[in-house]
Write a structure and sequence with these properties.
Chain lengths: ~325, ~450
């Protein structure tokens, strides 16, 4: 029984004048309740503002902290880039990988990056505070808000991927892509020498272990519109975990493809092994299941390969 | 026990009830007042937090911008710069010290108020088609606003600079400086973009000098008022006199052959702020502001009518076959005929600053519009021959035709086209009228057009 109810009951029993005063007191108590609720809402607003402020402060501190070491890191990156022909390495790795047709056409590209460059890529993953969304799960690469070192590294890697890896991967899947083009854009003249595909907006995906955390996060949904997707798990080759002091469990387990009827797909998230696979949903499901393997937080570089402007112009809206 | 409690415990109203009620009323009134005060405090706190968050977010954005700029100049495979004729020579850690500075603000102005009457008197189908394509491209732009970015310069501490035979600029940083570099002769050295990336032909053209080159000097000087300028050699007399007009003494002008020069601070104009093939609108507007501090440009247009003759141009660049007749026509309409070759710079400034209407065949002579007040009118004559020249496939001036129109593209990108002076006039707040006709310009139609324009001029003046 609330205070208001008891006041009302009291008012019903009292003489007229007192009853009116009790009713007024009840009304005042009611107003107080409204005021309290309103105050609580205001307080929640203050708390939310404080959260945003804390987030910005953490980003600022992150930027300032990383700025101090950026010069050394950038020199190291330049030394690595200057000492090897990374584009030739990437092309060679993609061209030599075995294309497996079942259960889903896919390409596992081992040692896709020169080892030193892969290590620099792992080291240049920005801190979680620079990732977007409530769970800090995704980050567009190259990042816009990050240290100079992270931006320079990911800009270089993105260019490398776009100019060296994507053309070879597209070429490897030419037959499959042609089949889909015949269905969706029969009027488009297929030219094996100039396949109309390009790298779409790439991102880093950061996932805590276990599928539950990512289930409700819309940012982790599959990349739509991808005809091909390249996934590169970014795990330290020495086996050390990124966070939480746990060793990433990425060795040995066979991960099931999204379509269980097709049978298991041996697509283990080996360090420096890229997986190129048709479509956007299946690779997404694979990446999601990797995160359920236990261990620490996982990072994946996810690159959709999409129709270029020429092909998009003739595709029905659903195919773009 | 609170007054509330005492009141609520009473099974029946007692003699004490009024006292309890008094206390209850006082309590609720005070509590409500306290709550209201608390809410006010919370709102104040919330506003303070929001302020602080905006400040912090701005600091994050600023720091991120610095990081992004550093990532660009310190990229592992070479600095990513706006001009491919520039190279930063040095380790990334040295290149990181290079800052990108912006001179002045952005330019933004609606275009259509600067577009006056247009008459296409040409009967040549190709010329009519070219004009229609120009208008279609203008109509296909995102909006009716001319926009220009501020000029950007690289600010390089402790550097040396040299220019190779292909006019590419090498900027050496820190330990990468060649051993042959002499100690700095000047503390601050500035290099405009036209010194290292501008064709010799354009450099000789007075129009390009005034509209493309001088704004670069002004943009750099705004960043370093004490800089010495490395300029192409040899400097022509008109170039020296216009630089003097901007207040730059000879001692700050160094004709440069590209030999290695060291400086404690080097400023190199990386990007003059042109959009596509367009004019550097922000820098142009900045130069006009600078000129206003040096020479008296009236706030309102004057009454003088000027026709700028091309009789001093090379025969194949006169564009109209009957210019003497055109001059006579304009003279009959009260225009004073001016030949720029015969007119000293100070006289040009005086005449153009008093003008209310300036007419002429599109060309370098109209560049003196920079001295003409806002609100003045410009009559631009375009012959068939000139129109086709703007569409010449092999030249950069035909970018407006060659580049596929981007739906929603930027209007300013069309600034190197027959609309050249329309954009210049817009940058100066003037109105441009266009008459497009055969090389042998039809005088009757031109006369009617001039009458119509003068009617517009009088209407706008009244």
């Amino acid at each position: 029984v609330s205070i208001l109810d008891r006041l009302r009951a009291l008012a019903a029993r009292g003489p007229g004048a007192d009853a009116a005063r009790v009713r007024a007191a009840a009304a005042a108590a009611k107003a107080m309740r409204h005021e309290l609720r309103d105050t609580r809402r205001t307080l929640a607003g203050v708390a939310a503002e404080l959260d945003r402020l804390r987030h910005d402060v953490l980003r600022l501190r992150g930027l300032q902290a990383e700025a101090a070491g950026a010069a050394v890191q950038l020199d190291r990156l330049a030394d690595v880039v200057g000492s090897l022909d990374a584009a030739a390495h990437v092309r060679h790795a993609a061209a030599g990988a075995t294309l497996v047709d079942a259960p889903e056409p896919h390409l596992g590209i081992a040692a896709v990056l020169p080892r030193a460059l892969y290590e620099l890529a792992v080291a240049a993953i920005p801190a979680p505070v620079f990732f977007d969304g409530p769970g800090q799960t995704t980050l567009r690469v190259p990042p816009r808000v990050a240290s100079a070192h992270a931006i320079a590294t990911w800009t270089y890697l993105s260019d490398l991927l776009e100019t060296a890896l994507v053309p070879v991967v597209v070429e490897r899947f030419a037959m499959h892509l042609q089949r889909r083009m015949d269905l969706e854009a029969p009027a488009f003249a297929f030219d094996a020498a100039a396949l109309p595909f390009t790298a779409g907006p790439a991102r880093l995906v950061r996932e805590a272990p276990g599928p539950a955390a990512s289930d409700g996060d819309p940012a982790l949904r599959a990349v739509t519109g991808a005809w091909l997707t390249v996934l590169l798990p970014l795990t330290p080759e020495n086996g050390e975990a990124f966070e939480g002091g746990r060793r990433p469990a990425h060795t040995g387990a066979t991960v099931a493809a999204a379509d269980e009827r097709a049978g298991p797909l041996d697509a283990r998230p080996w360090a420096n092994t890229a997986l190129a696979i048709l479509g956007g949903s299946t690779p997404h499901a694979l990446r999601r299941s990797w995160s359920g393997e236990g261990g620490g937080v996982r990072y994946t570089w996810e690159v959709p390969i999409e129709p270029d402007r020429r092909l998009r112009a003739v595709l029905p809206p659903a195919g773009r | 026990v609170t007054p509330f409690g005492r009141l609520l415990r009473a099974r029946t109203p007692s003699a004490a009830a009024p006292r309890h009620l008094d206390a209850l009323e006082r309590l609720t009134t005070e509590a409500l007042a306290d709550l209201a005060a608390l809410k006010d405090d919370l709102r104040t706190l919330s506003a303070a937090l929001t302020d602080l968050r905006h400040t912090t977010a701005a600091a994050v954005a600023e720091q991120a911008q610095v990081a992004e700029a550093q990532a660009g100049v310190a990229a592992p495979d070479g600095a990513r710069l706006a001009s491919d004729a520039l190279a930063l020579v040095g380790r990334p850690s040295e290149r990181m010290r290079v800052r990108r500075l912006f001179s002045g603000g952005r330019f933004e102005r609606p275009f259509s108020p600067s577009v006056g009457l247009t008459r296409i008197a040409s009967t040549a189908p190709d010329v009519r088609d070219l004009w229609a394509r120009l208008e279609a491209r203008e109509a296909g732009c995102a909006d009716d606003v001319l926009r220009g970015a501020p000029a950007a310069a690289l600010d390089v501490p402790d550097a040396a600079v040299s220019m190779g035979p292909r006019r590419a600029l090498d900027i050496y940083l820190g330990a990468s400086k060649p051993a042959t570099a002499a100690p700095p002769a000047w503390p601050v050295v500035a290099v405009p973009k036209f010194t290292y990336q501008f064709s010799a032909r354009k450099l000789r053209n007075v129009g390009h000098w005034v509209l493309d080159c001088l704004p670069q000097i002004v943009a750099l000087e705004r960043l370093a008022p004490d800089a010495v300028f490395l300029l192409p050699t040899p400097l022509k007399a008109v170039q020296r006199s216009t630089l003097a007009m901007l207040g730059l003494p000879e001692s700050r002008l160094v004709p440069w052959n590209g030999d290695l020069v060291a400086a404690k601070r080097l400023l190199v104009l990386e990007d003059e702020g042109r959009a596509g093939g367009g004019r550097p609108l922000a820098a142009l507007a900045g130069m006009r502001e600078r000129l206003a501090t040096r020479i008296p440009v009236p706030a309102r247009p004057g009454t003088l009518r000027l026709y700028v003759s091309r009789r001093d141009a090379k025969p194949h660049r006169r564009w109209a076959a009957n210019e003497p007749d055109i001059e006579a026509l304009f003279e009959r309409h009260g225009f004073r005929i001016v030949s720029m070759a015969d007119c000293p710079l100070d006289e040009q400034m005086r005449l153009f600053s008093q003008a209310g209407v300036v007419a002429g065949i599109s060309g370098a002579g109209l560049a003196d519009l920079v001295f003409t007040p806002s609100g003045a009118h410009v009559i631009v004559l375009v012959s068939d021959d000139l129109m086709r020249w703007y569409a010449d496939d092999g030249q950069s001036r035909s970018l407006w035709l060659r580049n596929a129109p981007v739906p929603g593209g930027a209007l300013a990108e069309l600034g190197d086209s027959p609309r050249f002076y329309g954009h210049v006039a817009a940058a100066f707040g003037q109105v441009a009228h266009y008459f497009v006709a055969a090389d042998q310009m039809p005088l009757d139609q031109l006369s009617g057009f001039v009458d119509d324009v003068m009617g517009t001029v009088e209407a706008s003046a009244s």
